Every structure is written in structure tokens, then in C-alpha cells.
Structure to design on (283 residues):
């Protein structure tokens, strides 16, 4: 089943949290000269137009990135959010109007250097075509139309022993919840020093509890969990919140998120919005 298209959701509140963390993680990795490998198990199309029929149909970006990106240089915005906002602004040809929004490969393409490489997996026939076109001149990108979970396991540890893995499934299939966690646990066995980012939607709270339990029963160490719920948990309203499990985050990430989360709550929250930031597993 491949009905999910990220074009409908690009720039929504979940992308804001996920991509601001991804930006901070990748930026941190570029502080050392030594190259690293970025692996994106579920890449999507790479870049999205906010003027096309998909974005306009749902208008989700209007409740996400559009609410926090402003023309006045985001004066009240926490410093930790600025690398992400600057990156988004730089991509729009007219900096006064937000016309495009990057997917995770688009963010990586902006931040990775000549010595870094990217492995991008995507299954959807249309999105793999967009992704291939988008990455055409990106010399150290490797794009594959194959299963991203298997792809991750086949690539760790990377030769440089420096790597970031993003696992961002559509959760169309319920098995994605366990498969995503188990892929990280298996990958960690082979590459315990890698940084792993797993995105999840809060649709049913029990599923998140199960993911947490599976992680805490594993031998994975140093796992930070961040969650931003736009509204209270509910079994009726689809995705009410979004979160990330981050294994081996850089040491400043927790304090960077401490700054970002209240800002997201104020600017993107609805009734009963809240956030969680916890070290789920100690170092
Ligand atoms: C949530 S979207 C990815 C968004 C992207 N990571 C971003 O942040 O912009 C999930 C993508 O995974 C693709 N997909 C679904 N199952 C997959 C699999 N087993 N392996 C690789 N890609 C898959 C879908 O076609 C969809 O484009």
C-alpha cells in the first residue's frame, strides 16, 4: 500500500519539530572536518511546492511553518530555531513569500559538505522520480527505490564511523511502529555510536507507550524523547501530536529543545497543547 504522499503534509507542525531537530543534528555533525554519512530510510520527494494542489488542498503548512516564519526576521524566536528558519527562508526565491518547503533530503542537501554522503530510500514511484531529479547534481547522494528499513541495516556502520540515520515512516501500516523501533535496535547493535532519529505521530497513545517500552527493554543507551502535542490526546481527531526518539543526540540538543518547545507551544499550539522532553534512557 503506497497511498501516502508527503506533499499533502509538507511544512505542517510535525515537520517543523522534525526538521528543526534534523537541522540541529546535521549542523552539529558538520562542526568536525571528518565526513559523515546521512541515511534517510523514508525520503519522500525531497522538495515541495507550497503552491501546488496538494499543499493547497490540506493547507497544513499554514498551521505549521507559515505561522512561525515571518518577514520581521523572527525577532522573538529562540536562537536554536534560527538555523532551521534561515534554511527554509534561503530556499524560497522570494524571501518575503514562502513558496517551497524542503523535505528531509532537501535539508540534508543544504547542510552536507563535499566530504559527506547521503543514502536516500523511497518506494513511491512518483516521489522517487522527483527525488532523483532533485538530487541530480548532488554528487555524493545515492538514491534507491527499495525498502528503507533493510537499507539502513545494510549501510551501518558507515566506513567513516560517523553517521546520522533518519527513520520517518508514513505509519500507513500499523507494523511500522514496531518495525521502526526494531530497525534502530538492530542497527544500534552494529553501530552503537551513530545518531538515530525516529519520527512518530501521536494518533493513539498506546502505540507510543509500546514503542517506549520496546526501547527501554532493549540495550540501546542515551535516548532522548521529545514530543509536541498540538492538542490533547484523542482517538477521534487523527494526529494530535508528534514526537521523536533520538539516540545519541549531541550534548546541547536537550537545551536547544528546551528553548524551542515553549515557542512552538505558544505559536502552533491549540487548546490543551503540551510538550514533553525527557531522557528516556540514560547514557
Ligand atoms: C513521512 S514521508 C517521508 C518524509 C520525509 N522524510 C521528510 O521529512 O520530508 C514517508 C515516505 O516513505 C515512503 N515509504 C513508505 N514505505 C517505505 C519503505 N518501506 N521504504 C522506503 N520508503 C517508504 C512513502 O512513499 C513516503 O514518501
Amino acid at each position: 500500500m503506497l497511498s501516502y504522499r508527503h506533499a499533502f503534509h509538507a511544512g505542517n507542525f510535525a515537520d517543523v519539530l522534525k526538521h528543526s531537530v534534523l537541522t540541529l543534528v546535521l549542523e552539529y555533525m558538520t562542526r568536525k572536518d571528518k565526513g559523515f554519512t546521512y541515511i534517510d530510510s523514508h525520503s519522500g520527494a525531497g522538495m515541495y511546492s507550497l503552491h501546488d494542489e496538494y499543499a493547497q488542498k490540506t493547507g497544513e503548512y499554514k498551521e505549521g511553518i507559515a505561522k512561525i516564519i515571518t518577514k520581521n526576521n523572527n525577532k522573538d524566536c529562540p536562537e536554536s530555531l534560527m538555523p532551521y528558519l534561515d534554511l527554509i527562508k534561503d530556499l524560497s526565491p522570494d524571501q518575503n513569500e514562502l513558496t517551497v518547503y524542503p523535505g528531509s533530503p532537501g535539508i540534508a542537501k543544504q547542510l552536507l559538505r563535499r566530504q559527506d554522503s547521503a543514502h536516500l530510500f523511497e518506494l513511491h514511484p512518483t516521489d522517487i522520480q522527483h527525488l532523483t531529479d532533485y538530487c541530480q547534481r548532488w554528487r555524493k547522494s545515492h538514491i534507491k527505490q527499495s525498502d528503507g528499513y533493510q537499507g539502513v541495516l545494510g549501510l551501518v556502520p558507515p566506513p567513516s564511523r560517523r553517521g546520522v540515520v533518519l527513520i520517518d515512516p508514513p505509519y500507513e501500516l500499523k507494523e511500522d511502529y514496531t518495525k521502526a523501533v526494531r530497525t534502530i535496535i538492530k542497527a544500534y547493535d552494529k553501530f552503537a555510536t551513530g545518531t538515530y532519529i525516529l519520527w512518530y505521530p501521536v494518533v493513539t497513545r498506546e502505540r507510543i507507550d509500546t514503542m517506549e517500552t520496546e526501547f527501554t527493554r532493549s540495550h540501546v543507551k542515551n535516548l532522548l524523547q521529545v514530543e509536541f502535542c498540538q492538542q490533547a490526546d484523542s482517538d477521534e481527531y487523527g494526529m494530535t501530536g508528534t514526537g521523536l526518539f533520538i539516540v545519541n543526540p549531541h550534548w546541547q540538543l536537550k537545551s536547544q529543545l528546551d528553548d524551542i518547545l515553549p515557542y512552538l507551544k505558544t505559536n502552533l499550539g491549540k487548546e490543551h497543547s503540551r510538550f514533553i522532553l525527557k531522557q528516556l534512557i540514560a547514557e
About this structure: The longest strand covers residues 195-202. The two ends are 38 Å apart (CA to CA). Residues 2, 4, 6, 18, 41-44, 103-104, 121-124, 127, 147-149, 168-170 surround S-adenosylmethionine (CB under 6 Å).
